[in-house]
């Protein structure tokens, strides 16, 4: 169902410019857009499209508004306005409440009447499934797990005993919450498993990407704050604590008992060693190895930069001489200083 | 069922040498092989086995053919011939067409009569399952997904709404295709989710390894070209495009809106940052961090080389002095040049 | 059910000190512990808690025993004793034997009467499920797979044809064992798949973390030794062999045909390239890239250390000059030596 540009302006709080009656059916990229579409131009780099796009309307930054001849929404934060426009044009429709025939619900679980459990879903004893929850096909909810209101759990998700998921969360397919943390103690020639008796406590408005795993705590709990956004293929070890509204990109590996503050941005493929702390508002760039605690907010990095293989070989082999090079340089400096005296 | 060496020669196009009636039942490693087995020797390094192997026949490179006293298949590309021999000796048998009792198929899905849906499979409305498709137990195919002819989907796979999988693809267990891309815009103190309304379009003859996730596009689609081979535990972000016949090894992390050309070889555990492009025929070695676009085909690397921990500590700590070392060296060079004048 | 401290002493072999009748119901962290809890203090760093904890009893190292006024268990290896205490206080209760209504068991599979198969479990023809095995909901056990005694398989696990899992193993949710190894041979402009006809053989007492994948062998088998502990999100390629009691932390990527010895410790996010060997008793620290074989036991590392982004940029850009810096330093040394002669 199309919406008028003035409806979109009103719902997003953006400033309307031009024909508010203009009907918008779809959000699209400014290059691919056609009649009936709304697209966006945020930066001068794309300003050429202000005049060449076939879109019916645009979301534009205030700086570009004057150059825009199409009906448009002018916004101080055009990315946010456009995201809201996309959401308005693509309302997510959940199926009506109900329990699919092949779902298996333990009689001692408590399922709100407004929840939806798809085919093959398994709910164990003591679980609480709150109002408006959606659980996708073949997902398994363990004993005494609580799922908060309106949380959306996609297909083939596993949540193990006692874990708590807050309200308005989204768990994508293949997510595992509450597997045992990785703890073993040497016992003679082999290992004795440290029982992982803690749980996982996940706040509200948390998003967890496909194939991500969050381990349960050993003694205490693993804790994910409100509004945390976790991408795909991420490992979160036992007893990790993550502050509210921190964002973590794909393939990041967080070892046990790491404490990450609130409002952090952790890039993709980052490694964070065990038992360290990262303060609020920290940014860690992609591929960094966080080898010690970060006590001052800022931007942190490691990794090396790409080169042609032939150059890289030459330089990488010199890495093993770094300490020796530094020492030789110092000796040379001294020799010359002595000589020049 | 054993095949004669001459049958194998004919089917693979290799040159037969020796007793074509020799019956071959199994492909094996040259060291473990016994009577009835065929093994291979490609390189001089293994030429000793030409005479000591207990195999009944060998696939050999042309260069080694003269030294081979056993019945053999001589090939310019012995790896390819041997792979074909293994395939001939191990035909994959799919179960007869049908839908298992506990599969749940929406009446508005279209299932070809020659497809096989195993137990616990869930097929949503509007899905199209083409001729010869195999879908393994407990896999879930979302609304309006299309699965092309003869595609093999193993167990516990999730494919989300609207995605398109081509013909003759193989998806291993635990694969997730079409989870939401990772897009959020700051909205006051928290984040607003950018709706991910694009899809995933996968070509023909694509292989996707276990536990790999491929996100749907934000506005446009994520696109995987024909013949692309993707290993396990790989992350492919939203709106990534991968050209035909590119091969990507395990644990590689590809951020959003990356464009990889055709015929590339991307090593294992590579990280590729968002919004960059890699031209056709590029080779990226394992563990490289691709921090900027690659505009010329070639071999590219980063990473550092392993050392004993004690040496590594010394050298790694000097990394933080690199810039200073370089500057001090320059000063020293100048001092000496001045002095020597 | 609480246990007395003397019962705990007896079962763990620790030395009892103080009131053995003291009833212990729960294991807890020394800071959070309260009445009825047992906690631990292993190191002098935490010795302040010996007097301030509200726990009823403590596990302490021998060195700290004298300072402990509470009833306690004194141990030479307090970590091991405490782990055993936690296990005693948290016995794992498995459900009674049986097969859930929605499990689908092929008539040609052999299921021990003492095994438990949860809802949605699928067992294929020829599979052998031994005594005391637990298989979690929606897991799929392929043709001719053998699962050893008392092995615990959590939810949504996939085990593919012919694989063998030993006794007393634990496989966490989302694990995939036996997907095809990643092998392709160039065939003209595209790739021919090398059939992966080997299997995966897993020993006894192996633990496999959530979302980890272990590929089947190409010709021979992938082999995981007794007592090996494998964390989450790990990739183990085809024909890898891992010796007994080796421990591998999360997100590590092991390429094909790697041979890792016994009693090794492999850190998190390590990358190990294909076709190399690592001897017994080797330690590889987190994030290392193992680019060649390790022939002498020891501790090995690579990676670079984190810095502020601004410093890192300066130094990382100099990495590309390393070889040139080294050469320039050598020239300078010679010049000065000549001069000083």
Structural account:
The structure is a homotrimer. With about 350 residues, chain A is an alpha/beta fold. The first copy, chain A, folds into three domains: about 5-90, Udp-n-acetylmuramoylalanyl-d-glutamate--2,6- Diaminopimelate Ligase, Chain: A, domain 1, CATH 3.40.1390; about 100-300, Hexapeptide repeat proteins (UDP N-Acetylglucosamine Acyltransferase, domain 1); about 310-340. The first copy, chain A, has five helices and 40 strands. Chain A has an eleven-stranded parallel sheet with strand order 8-11-14-17-20-25-28-31-34-37-39, with no helix packed on it. In chain A, strands 9-12-15-18-21-26-29-32-35-38 form a ten-stranded parallel sheet, with no helix packed on it. The first copy, chain A, has a nine-stranded parallel sheet with strand order 10-13-16-19-24-27-30-33-36, with no helix packed on it. In chain A, strand 22 (about 185) and strand 23 (about 190-195) form a beta hairpin. Chain A is flat. Chains in contact: A-B, A-C, B-C. Chains B and C meet through helix 3, strand 40, helix 4 and helix 5 of B and strand 22, strand 23, strand 38, strand 39 and helix 4 of C.
């Amino acid at each position: 169902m199309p919406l008028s540009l003035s409806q979109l302006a009103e719902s997003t709080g953006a400033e309307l410019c031009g024909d508010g009656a203009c009907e918008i059916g779809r959000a699209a990229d400014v290059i691919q857009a056609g009649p009936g579409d709304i697209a966006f131009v945020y930066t001068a780099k794309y300003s050429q499209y202000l005049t060449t796009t076939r879109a019916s309307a645009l979301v534009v930054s205030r700086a570009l508004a004057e150059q825009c001849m199409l009906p448009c929404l002018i916004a101080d934060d055009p990315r946010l306005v456009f995201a809201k426009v996309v959401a308005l044009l693509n309302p997510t429709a959940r199926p009506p409440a109900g329990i699919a025939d092949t779902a298996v619900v333990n009689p001692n679980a408590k399922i709100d009447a407004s929840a939806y459990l798809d085919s093959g879903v398994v709910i164990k004893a003591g679980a609480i499934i709150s109002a408006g929850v959606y659980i996708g096909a073949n997902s398994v909810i363990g004993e005494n797990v609580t799922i908060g209101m309106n949380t959306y759990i996609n297909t083939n998700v596993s949540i193990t005993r006692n874990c708590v998921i807050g309200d308005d969360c989204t768990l994508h397919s293949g997510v595992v919450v509450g597997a045992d943390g990785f703890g073993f103690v040497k016992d003679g020639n082999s290992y004795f498993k440290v029982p992982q008796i803690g749980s996982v406590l996940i706040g509200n408005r948390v998003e967890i990407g496909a194939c991500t795993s969050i381990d349960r705590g050993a003694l205490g709990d693993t804790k994910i704050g409100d509004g945390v956004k976790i991408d795909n293929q991420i490992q979160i070890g036992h007893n990790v604590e993550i502050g509210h509204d921190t964002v973590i990109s794909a393939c990041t590996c967080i070892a046990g008992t790491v404490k990450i503050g609130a409002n952090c941005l952790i890039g993709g493929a980052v490694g964070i060693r065990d038992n360290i702390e990262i303060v609020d508002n920290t940014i860690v760039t992609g591929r960094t190895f966080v080898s010690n605690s970060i006590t001052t907010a800022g931007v942190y990095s490691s990794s090396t930069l790409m080169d042609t293989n032939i150059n890289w070989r030459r330089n990488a082999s010199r890495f093993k001489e770094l300490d020796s090079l530094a020492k030789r340089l110092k000796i040379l400096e001294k020799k010359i200083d002595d000589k020049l005296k």
